[in-house]
Amino acid sequence: MSTRNPAQLMPIANSQRTRAPAHLPQAHDLAGSIELIGAPMPFARNSEIYGEGEAAEFLYKVVSGAVRTYKILGDGRRQIGDFYLPGDIFGLEVGDEHQLSAEAIGDSTILVIKRSALIALATRDSDLARQLWTFTARAFDRVQNHLLLLIRSAQERVACFLLEMAGRLQVTDTMELPMSRQDIADYLGLTIETVSRTLTQLETQAAIELPTARRVVVRNRAVLRRLNG
Amino acid sequence: MSTRNPAQLMPIANSQRTRAPAHLPQAHDLAGSIELIGAPMPFARNSEIYGEGEAAEFLYKVVSGAVRTYKILGDGRRQIGDFYLPGDIFGLEVGDEHQLSAEAIGDSTILVIKRSALIALATRDSDLARQLWTFTARAFDRVQNHLLLLIRSAQERVACFLLEMAGRLQVTDTMELPMSRQDIADYLGLTIETVSRTLTQLETQAAIELPTARRVVVRNRAVLRRLNG
DNA sequence: CGGCGGCTTGATCGGTCTCAAGTACGGTGG
DNA sequence: CCACCGTACTTGAGACCGATCAAGCCGCCG
Q1: What does the alpha-carbon distance between residue A208 and residue A173 come to, in Å, rounded to a whole number?
Q2: Which nucleotide shows the minimum CA-to-C1' distance to residue A192?
Q3: Chosen from A69, A94, A118, A127 to mutate, greatest number of chain B CBs within 10 A
Q4: How far are the Cα atoms of A67, A162, A219 from residue A155, in angstroms, in the given order?
């Protein structure tokens, strides 16, 4: 209920063909193959797309909206694995089971593709096989960078997160974050309070502005970048 | 612990002295191909095997000794990506550059394999192609588990590390750790002092014994396991 | 206008880091 | 075999950062 429509300010550009930026979760040619055999499906805010341990029958491409993948830990905490924005592909497993769960963050449209078709194709098409491999390798690089984030200070984590989101949303300065503070916290391994405080600090340092809670204006990239490694 | 046995579904060709357990970084059939075309090389303690950013001309299989991969961060800290024990394969990149550096922890013998040969072979052999993909996927799962470790308490991290090493060294109770406290600290995102103190605590709690600094006797697995999620 | 969910802010607590000694161990040379 | 050394490890005291607990605020919608 009461969702502000989270997708509206995103530079969606593409309803059809991959016009997405060349950021990591994207495998360009793969995306091409996918659009040929995928079917678009609507998912409501916070609805599950798949669950951890379920058979990985499909893979997915975000058309509009945004998606989070996550695990629930033994103590009840949630760790977000990644966020996916329009153009991004997710849910491709090498094994038979999904390793994480996936949910729509806001109301979203997702292209759903049968995995078996793609895998079968890959045994005949060595080029496609290589693309699948490359896709997994990119996911690997992403999770490795994510890991490197978790050993840094709260300011560094948040600054890095903002820069990454700015890059992926391909904005010059102003962006509308699709995810809540809690989502950001669970991605960065912090509490919601620490994320909130840190954003306030960054605003105080004139690195960013926060006209609304979800809208972020990047004022001084150098300050943010200084917090990277 | 995370390990489902990764090798069992694969047709195994490998007759050689792979005495290693079937833990994650290992791809058995891949290993078979490798032993055919690889050449053993000695590396002295703390010597570099390859550096971050270098051309990924080779991949490697540990024959004896142990290896660490790592990155040096902007502030000078070191994050260890993974440890590799006899039987483990490492250094296989999808792209052209190594993403991390690799060093021998102690004096080691490493099998060195030309990557180009393997890649070329994979374009003709869809089975090998799938094995390469599977190998990368396992590395992905490993780094994801590593990431989940970093959001937990020091005790949980150390306990989990010990259980994993015990599994990989296939010991029932007593093991000799190949790596220093500093290595463990840099793997777990802790300081050397915290690792040391935590081991002492675990000993006090009768979960382990430390006859020497590097030798660990697992006394009470339940206590260690309780610290997992 | 009232209520609710998401966000911010404040005060305190606790775990890990930092800085600083102290100790055990393995290797080397006498 | 022992004395010595350097390296690796342990232990202690105090500081600091982020978590926790607890209000309060804002925007949105009925």
Answers
A1: 9
A2: C7
A3: A94
A4: 24, 11, 16
Radius of gyration of chain A (CA): 18
The verdict on a CB contact (< 8 Å) between A229 and B133 is: no
Structural Rg of chain B based on CA atoms: 18
Interface mutation target, options A118, A128, A138, A148, chain B, most CBs of B under 10 Å: A148
Question: B33 near B128, Cβ under 8 Å?
Answer: yes
Q: Torsion over CA of A51, A55, A59 and A63, rounded to 10 degrees? A: -30
The whole-angstrom distance between A218's CA and the closest CA on chain B is 23
Count chain A–chain B contacts defined by CB atoms under 8 A.
90
Look at the alpha carbons of A158, A159, A165, A168 in this order and tell me if their dihedral is positive or negative.
negative
Q: Which chain C nucleotides are covered by protein, judged by CB under 7 A?
A: 5-11, 15-20, 25-26
> Tell me, what amino acid is at A34?
I
Would you give per-residue pLDDT tens digits along chain A (229 residues)?
A: 333 333 333 332 333 334 444 444 444 467 666 666 789 999 999 999 999 999 999 999 999 999 999 999 999 999 999 999 999 999 999 999 999 999 999 999 999 999 998 999 999 999 999 999 999 999 999 999 999 999 999 999 999 999 999 999 999 999 999 999 999 999 999 999 999 999 999 999 999 999 999 999 999 999 999 877 6
